[in-house]
Design brief:
Layout lengths: L1 H21 L7 H5 L1 H7 L1 H26 L12 H6 L31
Helix pairs in contact: 1-4, 3-4
């Protein structure tokens, strides 16, 4: 069910982005080139009204989908809950500690500085 909500939210977000990119508050933008046919049928004023209503509609749809999707998140005690995964984890014998078989590094020896003139 969460997958369905995720797909619907992504699809609505893409449509909202396209609607926002089409409209321009100064009257230009992509609506003048892409919406030429709709401007002939409905007029310029009605086209901007439809785009503005579409913006509010898809913003509300995204908000409602995000809020209602939280109702479908499984609570603890479900099939994939954390407690069930811990209880079903395979249990084995612990590994024995490994022996340290490395050769110790030689300690640096201090040298006495040579005295000049001897």
């Amino acid at each position: 069910m969460l997958l369905l909500f995720g797909i619907l939210i992504i699809l609505s977000s893409i449509i909202l982005g396209v609607i926002v990119l089409i409209q321009n508050p100064k009257g230009g933008g992509l609506s003048s080139s892409l919406g030429g046919f709709s401007n002939q049928l409905m007029g310029v004023k009605q086209t901007t009204d439809v785009l503005e209503k579409g913006t509010w509609l898809f913003a509300a749809i995204i908000g409602i989908l995000c809020i209602t999707s939280t109702l479908f998140i499984p609570s603890s005690g479900g099939a994939n809950s954390r407690d069930n995964l811990i209880n079903q984890a395979p249990v084995g014998t612990p590994l024995a500690p490994q022996q340290n078989n490395t050769v110790p590094l030689p300690t640096p020896q201090t040298q006495t500085p040579a005295t000049p003139g001897k």
